[in-house]
Design goal:
The structure is a single chain. The chain has 202 residues and is mostly helical. The protein has 2 domains: 2-135, Winged helix-like DNA-binding domain superfamily/Winged helix DNA-binding domain (Arc Repressor Mutant, subunit A, Orthogonal Bundle); 151-201. Helices cover 56% and strands 9% of the residues. The longest helix has 25 residues, at 116-140.
């Protein structure tokens, strides 16, 4: 999976790795911090403002929803981006009580159109991440009823119990390692790849 780097016209993409968390070779960006470069975030914000005027917290929510909860920029990232867009004339702001409503300007739309391919690529990447997050949640959800006993012998039910117990143990182990070092993450990734290969053989 890839993430568009800067959007100044270069064609380069940076590899995120198979787990979209940057743990693979050449991984970058959305590891534990899940951060975008300021220019990329500004372009994403412009793309969202082109869809509808928004408050800062609405933009945070929109990015969180589009990525399935994986990417949720902090107010300390969103509001400086909005301030910069306002300063260069790509967005305007109007007060709504204690809130500020941001709108894209004509200049902002022109800039967005010049960089539409990069913006669409990043939005599509968020959607792909969201799909993967949904798949992971379904995998770990347990959905026990879908794997109920298939016969009266009880063999399928016992197998199901062991399966879900093992899956819970794996989930707990991965959760405990969520802030591990790069080296440890690479070690875990290799273990998971071997396990996946063994499972696929069956």
């Amino acid at each position: 999976m890839y993430w568009m780097g800067r959007h100044s016209g270069r064609r380069g993409f940076r590899h995120l790795g198979p787990d979209f968390g940057g743990m693979g070779p050449g991984g970058f960006g959305f590891r534990t911090g899940r951060k975008l470069g300021s220019a990329d975030l500004q372009l994403l914000v412009l793309a969202l403002l082109a869809e509808r005027p928004s408050h800062g917290y609405e933009l945070i929510k929109a990015l969180e929803e589009r990525s399935g909860g994986f990417y949720s920029p902090s107010p300390g990232m969103i509001y400086p981006a909005l301030t910069y867009l306002e300063e260069i004339g790509h967005a305007t702001v109007e007060a709504e009580g204690a809130k500020k409503l941001y709108r894209i300007t004509e200049s902002g739309r022109e800039y967005l159109e010049k960089n539409r391919a990069a913006a669409d690529s990043m939005l599509s990447e968020l959607e792909r991440i969201s799909d993967k997050m949904s798949h992971i949640r379904r995998f770990f959800s347990g959905a026990r009823g879908e794997h109920a006993a298939e016969d009266e012998s009880g063999e399928a039910e016992r197998g199901s119990d062991e399966f879900y117990a093992a899956r819970r143990e794996l989930k707990a182990a991965l959760h405990a390692k969520r802030r591990c070092s790069r080296e440890e993450a690479d070690r875990i990734a290799e273990i998971l790849r071997r396990a996946a290969a063994e499972i696929a053989k069956g």
